[in-house]
Design a protein that fits this description.
Distance between the termini: 36 Å
Helix content: 55-70%
CATH class: Mainly Alpha
Strand order of the largest sheet: 1-3-2
Structural class: alpha+beta
Number of strands: 3
Order of helices and strands: HHEHHEEH
Shape: globular
Largest sheet: 3 strands, antiparallel
Radius of gyration: 15 Å
Strand content: 5-15%
CATH superfamily: Winged helix-like DNA-binding domain superfamily/Winged helix DNA-binding domain
CATH topology: Arc Repressor Mutant, subunit A
């Protein structure tokens, strides 16, 4: 594995390590949603949701599909869903054992 590969992996973990992005991704694991639906579910401003989605799209984690005038976002890679679900499950075990 090259140093550049490790740098890219590090950037991905940094992206996933941000609490708001992790919340957003965890929400999208459950079902696809529009910006306004995400905004309501997480109680965030729509501009904050859009900003986080833009970053996640840049790394290919989130994909958008247009349905008429509405854009629906969903996780693009099922492996990301598995990774996040595993991390959340592990974190819950740590919290319960504390």
């Amino acid at each position: 594995m090259e140093i550049e590969d490790l740098d890219e992996i590090s950037r991905l973990f940094k992206l996933l390590g941000h609490p708001k992005r992790l919340q957003l991704l965890y929400l999208l694991i459950q079902h696809s949603m529009s910006v306004s639906e995400i905004s309501k579910a997480l109680n965030w401003e729509q501009s904050a949701v859009s900003h986080q989605l833009q970053l996640l799209r840049k790394y290919g984690l989130v994909k958008q599909i247009r349905h008429g005038k509405t854009i629906i976002y969903h996780l693009q890679d099922p492996k990301v869903m598995t990774l996040i679900a595993d991390v959340v499950s592990h974190a819950e075990k740590i919290v319960k054992s504390s």
